[in-house]
Amino acid sequence: MRMTFLSRICPTAFALVVALIGGAAFAPAIVRAQEPAIAPLTCLLAPARVSAVGTDLRSIVADVPVSRADFVAAGDLLIQLDGALAQADLDVAEITVRALEERIARNEGLVGRNLISLDEVEQLRTDLALARADSSRASLQIARTSIRAPFAGYIAQTGVAEGELTGTEPLLQLIDVSTLRAEMVFLDSAFGRFEVGQNLRIAVDLVNAEVDGIITVIDPYLDAASNTFSVVAEIENADLLLPAGASCRIMDGS
User: Fold this and answer.
1) Cα–Cα distances in Å, from 13 out to 7, 16, 22, 66, 214?
2) Quick check: pTM over 0.70?
3) Are 93 and 138 in contact (CB under 8 A)?
4) Res. 216: pLDDT tops 50
5) What's the CATH number for 42-81+147-250?
């Protein structure tokens, strides 16, 4: 068999080239190491909803039937304000409505006999409509004196007591802990490592629990002062086993 020019000049070099070329075909692919999990600087569980319940009515607090740490359902009474003035306005409006209805009923029959002008009857009807509007407004004011829970949750704190005058400050704070938010802060080196909808395995060491969280919010920017950004994951807590305010951490492999 005829030998190539390289094999005749340097058999050793020829063998080495053949070995390198053949070995390259069977060389294993380079596997990039998986990026290590990045721990947040801080991770804290917060209530999904917090409401500083207030009112724009200037009134005296008649009753506060709830206390701190009480659980209330949506629509439960939280604070009862004095509604005596609104009730008096409603009484006056209802009396006026009844009186006008009776006058209109008597006078409508007189229009056909030209004993009363049509304009007078129309004016009575306008007065009746205004009186009914006053009645509806007074009823609304009475309803607003009963301040009710906008959602189910726990009373975190109360800011008023019976006999106090309402002002611009919140009357009480209501929190919903059936869903929690894991609020995490990361260094800029973790930017781009997360995406909305991603599942995270989160540990809460205080109660020795591991739960799943779904990322709902990622800051699209960095804080220039600290080179950090925030990520928020939502955690179901229907059994109320996880306490709001507890610290948390991301499990390895998340």
Assistant:
1) 8, 5, 14, 92, 60
2) no
3) yes
4) yes
5) 2.40.30.170
